[in-house]
Amino acid sequence: MKIRIDRSACVGNARCAAVSEAMFPLDEDGYIATDGFEVAPGAEKTARNGARACPERIIYVEEDDGTISWPPQKRA
């Protein structure tokens, strides 16, 4: 599983960092400081919770098969 982050859309709510500062580090201005990362085995639940905590929905959970499981995708 991977986490992908659209840093340019971060507004600095820091809710992701409240879930895990180690996974979702912030820069000196309080914005997300990573573009994403591979999720270590056993850390999937924390990574998902951090992604879901973002009210802007700029943190994407990419499953091993390449599908995006969060945020919900809009249907046509």
- Tell me the quaternary state: single chain
Structural class: alpha+beta
Helix-strand string: EHEHEE
Extract low-pLDDT stretches.
Answer: none
Total of helices: 2
Give the overall shape: globular
From the 3D structure, determine the CATH topology: Alpha-Beta Plaits
Query: So, CATH architecture?
Result: 2-Layer Sandwich
Domains, number: 1
* Helicity level: 10-25%
Query: What's the number of extended β-strand segments?
Result: 4
Task: Explain this structure.
By secondary structure, the chain is an alpha+beta fold. It has a single domain, classed as 2-Layer Sandwich (Alpha-Beta Plaits), CATH 3.30.70. The chain has two helices and four strands, in the order E-H-E-H-E-E. The protein has a four-stranded antiparallel sheet, with helices on one face. It comes from Sphingomonas ginsenosidivorax. Keywords: Electron transport, Iron, Iron-sulfur, Metal-binding, Transport. This is Ferredoxin. It holds the Pfam family Fer4_15.
Q: What characteristics describe this protein?
A:
76 residues, alpha+beta, Alpha-Beta Plaits, 4-stranded antiparallel beta sheet, 2 helices, 4 strands
List the helices and strands and how they pair.
Elements: E1 2-5, H1 15-19, E2 36-38, H2 44-53, E3 59-62, E4 68-70
Keywords: Electron transport, Iron, Iron-sulfur, Metal-binding, Transport
GO molecular function: iron-sulfur cluster binding; metal ion binding
Protein name: Ferredoxin
